[in-house]
Automatic annotation (TrEMBL):
One Pfam family named in its UniProt record: LrgB
PANTHER family per the UniProt record, alphabetical: PLASTIDAL GLYCOLATE_GLYCERATE TRANSLOCATOR 1, CHLOROPLASTIC, PUTATIVE SEROTONIN TRANSPORTER
Protein's UniProt keywords contain Transmembrane: yes
Localization of this protein: Membrane
Bilayer topology annotation: Multi-pass membrane protein
Keywords: Membrane, Transmembrane, Transmembrane helix
Main location: membrane
Stretches assigned to coiled coil: none
TM stretches of this protein: 6-27, 34-52, 58-79, 91-117, 147-170, 210-230
Protein name: LrgB family protein
Length: 235
């Protein structure tokens, strides 16, 4: 009976959605990056699979259906861009300068550490989109030849770290402008960091949400340009 239940896609779909909803409720009661629904549900599902010795292929009987929502989720980001278009018009110099600088510096750091630790080409491609939202990162990683499942994990880890350290970084470097704070969080730690930006203030939350979209667009545009460089340096 239990084996039949494991082979049911409905079980895995229900488990995943249930964990996501539970995390959302916990995060409302105790705001914490560890209770971010994406992080919580992924970690708990991994623990269940490991301790019950259930193959990933078994989970994917139901879990694969969530892949169908990646493209619609990417398109839905345009809604956030539309809602914050006035902020983009007002602060476009700061937004574009901050995001382009951040993306280029981030890419150079990836290349530098990859050369230092002698990463393979697919690992470099996996890390390139780590600071953009999952829906876009998956497509970028796939187009560059990266390991998609590892990209998702790195994106989640980046978001959690960004949400945790952002207030401390702002305090240490005396960054008190709300626009700058929002751009920094959104362009480096995507949706998870944005939850922290919203806590800091309305302007920070709006700018962070807008930066998620613009950063994703910038990375998608620049990704094809990095592919020849990856192949040249790591082949």
């Amino acid at each position: 009976m239990f084996e039949l239940l494991l082979l049911s896609p409905i079980m895995w779909i229900t488990l995943t959605i249930g964990l996501y909803l539970i995390a959302g409720a916990l995060n409302k009661k105790w705001p914490n990056p560890l209770f971010t629904p994406l992080v919580f549900s992924i970690v708990v599902i991994i623990l269940i699979l490991v301790f019950m010795d259930i193959p990933l292929e078994t989970y994917n009987i139901g879990g694969q259906f969530f892949n169908l929502f990646i493209t619609p989720a990417t398109v839905a980001l345009a809604i956030k861009l539309h809602k914050n278009i006035e902020h983009l018009r007002k602060y476009y110099h700061a937004i574009l300068t901050g995001i382009f600088t951040g993306v280029i510096f981030h890419t150079l750091m990836i290349f530098g550490f990859s050369l230092l630790f002698q990463f393979e080409e697919d690992m470099v491609a996996t890390l390139i989109p780590k600071s953009i939202t999952t829906a876009i990162a998956v497509g970028v990683s796939e187009s560059l030849g990266g390991i998609i499942s590892l990209t998702v994990g790195v994106v989640v880890f980046t978001g959690v770290i960004g949400a945790l350290v952002a207030p401390t970084v702002f305090r240490l470097f005396k960054i008190d402008d709300p626009v700058a704070q929002g751009i920094a969080i959104g362009s480096s730690s995507h949706a998870m960091g944005t939850t922290k930006a919203i806590e800091l203030g309305d302007v920070q939350g709006a700018m962070s949400g807008l930066s998620i979209v613009v950063t994703g667009i910038v990375v998608v545009i620049l990704a094809p340009l990095t592919l020849p460089l990856i192949q040249m340096l790591f082949n």
